[in-house]
Specification:
234 residues, alpha+beta, PH-domain like, 2 domains, 4 helices
């Protein structure tokens, strides 16, 4: 049952991915047939058929995926059913964009997203859906305002704004968790901050180089960036 109004965008399965998986399943069946005809190797036939079933199931799963975006939220359907999530109930949005290349030749960018709402419902999606770049852009646009509002309310109340490896507090400043230990900065010590090359960097005054967590591990990374913009404009 759809609880939302007219859709903003619809992203179905990537047909190329489905076709490739289907061809791999068919190829495994062919190799099973060859194994049975040439040597009568029962173990080889069974192995190839298992591989064919796995690729076939993967192809069906990929084919059944669909994401429909609405101004109020999203609907996500797959082989296992349908989930719906409202933007105003969203608490965490994880964003990952990975550029892939073969022999230094770019072959595309792969996107993965994970959304968690206040009821604990989780939705994972990205790879295998059509028009990944457009989906990424629309998700950022639709989630930014409600997430920024949620983070700003937490910040103004004096509570910690917990974004995984980055935590900010109105009184205490910023804490960045590292592999070993943590890095704490008072507001007066912050020189600049930015999302660059897939990482969230925060520079201390006078610092030229620093490390930062990957934004794929920072829930609500872009809303956090917007909140920092508001804080420093104040």
């Amino acid at each position: 049952m759809n609880i939302f109004g007219p859709p903003v965008a619809t992203h179905d399965s990537n047909k190329i991915v489905v076709v490739i998986l289907g061809l791999l399943a068919a190829g495994a069946v062919y190799f099973a047939w060859l194994a049975g005809q040439s040597s009568g190797d029962a173990a080889g036939v069974v192995f190839c058929l298992v591989i064919a079933l796995l690729f076939g199931f993967w192809a069906v799963w990929a084919w059944k995926r669909r994401v429909v975006l609405h101004p109020e939220g999203l609907s996500y359907s797959s082989l296992f059913g349908e989930k719906q999530m409202r933007w105003d109930n969203l608490t965490q949005f994880y964003y990952q964009a990975t550029k892939r290349s073969v022999n230094f030749i770019p072959i595309g960018t792969y996107y993965n997203f994970r959304l968690v709402d206040a009821d604990g419902q989780k939705i994972r999606m990205g790879t295998g859906l059509s028009n990944g770049a457009d989906l990424a852009q629309k998700l950022l646009e639709l989630t930014q305002v409600p997430l920024l509002r949620r983070l700003a309310t937490q910040f103004d109340s004096g509570a910690d704004v917990d974004c995984g490896p980055i935590r900010i507090n109105r009184q205490n400043g910023i804490v960045v968790k590292k592999l070993f230990g943590k890095r704490q900065l008072a507001w007066s010590e912050v020189q600049s901050y930015a999302i660059q090359r897939g990482h969230f960097y925060i520079w201390r005054t006078g610092e030229k180089r620093t490390t930062g967590p990957a934004i794929s591990s920072v829930p609500n990374a872009f809303a956090l960036l917007g909140l920092l913009n508001i804080i420093f404009k104040r």
